[in-house]
Design brief:
This protein has 237 residues and is α/β, with parallel strands linked by helices. The chain has helices at 19-30, 46-55, 89-107, 126-137, 170-178, 204-212, 217-223; strands at residues 6-15, 36-39, 60-65, 68-73, 76-82, 114-116, 148-151, 183-189, 226-228. Strands 1, 2, 3, 6, 7, 8 and 9 form a seven-stranded parallel β-sheet that branches. Strands 4-5 form a two-stranded antiparallel ribbon. The longest helix has 19 residues, at 89-107.
Length: 237
């Protein structure tokens, strides 16, 4: 991908999972640099999230496919819940199709992009299922898009769930922004206002939101020659 500009999509995951997460995503969009969000359609707060996007159409909305959640405990990943077995291709196809249908029923249109909770689509057989679904809709799939590079460095835990607060500091975010390549990059984030959900990633959400709402951030982004955009207005090149 060749491009003469540095474009940035700041995408908030887990939109719709709880009211506290919704409040954080909305604040980070209204008063911060978040331009897109990924919706979890299986959760009761999804309707509340979609209601906001109907009123505020500047937030592009993708599908955050939810197939389960796992927590690292005693040296191993332990399932908190599982929607379908990740090794069952038939069940995966049906569940991804079901969540896409639910998205369309809630939002009234197709998602602008696709990804998955805890990146489960990186492994087969989910990978092929997701690639086929995204290809059929002609939308970017996180990690596999030829036009949008993904950056997950703004995240407050290690790969084993150990707290990593320095990764969601202002200095860390500035470092990410300074090393942004030319072309379009999606930067993932997980803002939230209330610790109202029993999940692996909890207290870090408020810290992310604090950084995203820092009044200096827009000036920093502008000074680095970065153009904010969303999945709804991807450039041609």
């Amino acid at each position: 991908m060749t491009a003469s500009k540095k474009r940035l999509i700041i995408n908030a995951d887990d939109f719709g999972q709880s009211s506290g997460i919704n409040a954080g995503v909305i604040a980070a969009h209204q008063s911060g640099p978040v331009t897109s969000a990924s919706l979890m359609v299986r959760w009761p707060a999804a309707a509340e999230a979609v209601d906001y996007t109907r009123k505020q159409r500047t937030l592009s909305l993708g599908l955050h496919v939810d197939l389960g959640e796992w927590m690292f405990s005693d040296g191993d990943w332990v399932g908190m819940y599982e929607v379908v077995p990740l090794d069952d291709v038939n069940s995966l196809n049906k569940e991804v199709a079901r969540q896409l249908q639910t998205f369309h029923e809630l939002v009234g249109k197709q998602p602008t992009h696709m990804d998955s909770h805890q990146h489960v689509h990186l492994r087969e057989p989910a990978r092929t299922v997701f690639l086929n679904a995204a290809s059929n809709l002609n939308i970017p799939l996180r990690h596999f898009s030829p036009v949008v590079r993904y950056c997950g460095d703004f995240y407050g835990q290690t790969t084993q769930g150990v707290p990593l607060p320095d990764a969601i500091s202002m200095s860390s975010l500035i470092s990410i922004l300074r090393t942004l390549p030319y072309g379009t990059t999606e930067l993932g984030c997980h803002p939230g206002e209330a610790n109202d959900l029993e999940t692996m990633y909890r207290g870090e959400r408020a810290q992310e939101l604090k950084i995203l709402l820092d009044p200096q951030l827009p000036t920093i982004i502008n000074s680095l020659g970065i153009e904010l955009c969303s999945f709804a207005n991807l450039p041609e090149s």
